[in-house]
Write a structure and sequence with these properties.
The chain is of the alpha/beta class. Helices cover 39% and strands 21% of the residues. It has one domain (27-174): 3-Layer(aba) Sandwich (Glutaredoxin). It has 5 helices and 7 strands; from the N terminus they run αβββαβαβαββα. Helix 2 (71-87) links the parallel strand 3 (61-66) and strand 4 (92-97). Residues 18-174 form the Thioredoxin domain. One of its GO terms (biological process) is cytochrome complex assembly.
Length: 175
């Protein structure tokens, strides 16, 4: 019986420690193994059809992982569209969906979703989820601030406030 209790205590401690790591959604993270990634841009406001390199080679890039069916992604777009004009020259924005085009979803559907939410920066499809893998995304929405060399400087799982994003942008631009 003592052995069973000891094993339960060890398992509980492991789960608690793992949960603490997962809950640190703003933790800095540096890994450039997965970048740069080439994805397929969509013809939409602020975006062009064709290959898109993530991150941009000339400045930090905010990578926004989203899906058209994701309700929190709608709210995240409101925050991003409010901040974009303020940081547009210093921080590149790139929104990427891993949804597969075909069947019930066309690029035009994504472009319509994008236009209705006032997106005005590059939006792309990545059906292989290469970008999500490169930033370590574990859900949607997921944001990562990646420097020009491909190192993730900041990441956030879930809905991020404008204040939190502004703080992350300023830290990366100052650093």
């Amino acid at each position: 019986m003592n052995r069973r209790r000891a094993l339960a205590a060890i398992a509980g401690a492991g789960l608690t420690g793992g949960s603490a790591l997962i809950l640190q959604s703003d933790a800095p993270f540096a890994d450039s193994d997965g970048f740069p990634v080439r994805v397929e841009g969509i013809d939409a406001p602020g975006s062009e059809d064709g290959p898109l390199r993530v991150p941009r080679p000339d400045r930090p890039t905010l990578v926004d992982c989203f899906a058209t069916w994701c309700a929190p992604c709608d709210r995240q777009m409101e925050v991003l569209t409010a901040l974009y004009p303020e940081f547009e020259g210093a921080i590149a924005f790139a929104s990427v969906t891993s949804e597969r085009v075909g069947g019930g979803l066309a690029e035009a559907d994504i472009a319509d979703w994008w236009a209705r939410r006032d997106g005005d920066w590059p939006v792309a499809v990545d059906p292989e989820s290469s970008v999500m893998s490169a930033v370590g995304a574990d859900g949607l929405p997921y944001l990562a601030l990646v420097d020009a060399d491909g190192a993730v400087q900041w990441r956030h799982s879930g809905l991020a406030s404008g204040e939190r994003l502004r703080s992350a942008f300023e830290a990366v631009l100052e650093g």
